[in-house]
Amino acid sequence: MATSRNESLVPDATQLLQERRHQPNGTASATATNGKASTAPTTSTMMANSGTFMKFKTYLLALRPWSLSASLVPTLLGSALAYRSQWAAEFSLLTFFLTAFTAVTVHCAGNVVNTYFDFIKGIDKQKADDRTLVDHILTKDEVVSLGAILYMAGCGGFVLLAVLSPAKMEHLALIYFGGLSSSFLYTGGIGFKYIALGDLVILILFGPISVLFAFMSQTGHVDWTTMGYAIPLALNTEAILHSNNTRDAESDCKAGIVTLAILIGRTASHVLYAMLLFTPYSLFFIFGLKYSLWFLLPLVTLPQAFKIEKRFRNEQTMHLVPRQTAKLNFFFGILYIVACCCAQQLPTFVLRKV
After folding, report:
1. Considering just the CA atoms, what is the radius of gyration of the chain in Å?
2. What tens digit of pLDDT does each residue of 234-261 get?
3. Where is the composition biased (Polar residues) (predicted)?
4. Rounded distance, CA 273 to CA 252, Å?
5. What is the pLDDT at residue 222?
């Protein structure tokens, strides 16, 4: 009896499975167990969320976030000088955030443009540090769209800034659109980077101009002497670019472009990098002795600077230097800004109204 009962159950089970196979997907899933039914949509949702996150991460990495200290720190310095100046009757946080937003978005857009034209000109290949287009992480159309969106976002931020800032619109526009044009022409159009003028553009743009723009946005006054405070940051920021160009000198030369690192050679490039890296520390030492001990604060990063300079001399570790220099630039700059905010006496770059 038991045997016949088991035999009668087997065909029933087989028939049930066959019926389920022929049912529509929705019906089949409804007859499944509760655990399995809930797993399918959860898994697909998780995969969709993961895909969205990875896409966002891809776009974020395309902006080269490690380099953004070059535009953010000068903006912070200019704002700090405005706060300390005689014209800062009321420091506006909204103006500060809009200034930082416009500066950083233009910098990001410039990075994207650089990625695009380096790839188009055959400079970024398999050994390139920026893998965005080399590894087809993003398409060329996506990179172009990203750059356009960033430029439009920056212009939108500038319009709001021009409305809120006490500065004359023509003064703000001259600096902002001059910086925007330079960020594009660095590799697009004229291509300053490819004719050994990139270092000069970076030295001016991510130092004196950024500091002046932030100062003017807050105070409404044009004061060229604020550029004096930007010298340490400008030199340190140029060290980032120069280390990058020195690392890529061989591939750049094969691609037919000319950079300062190629013109002066490896040995002179090392000497120049050391000067760019350590000259700001010498200035801070003088400021500390003459004006306030607060200016000795950035010297706490000096041991790290020596380590990075040592890596610059080694071909095996040279590829690490640009990002490490950018990281040093951030902490170095923040400590400099703290010193400017806390020191009772600032260096004698006399602020004069224009």
Report:
1. 28
2. 999 999 999 999 998 888 888 888 999 9
3. 24-36
4. 18
5. 85
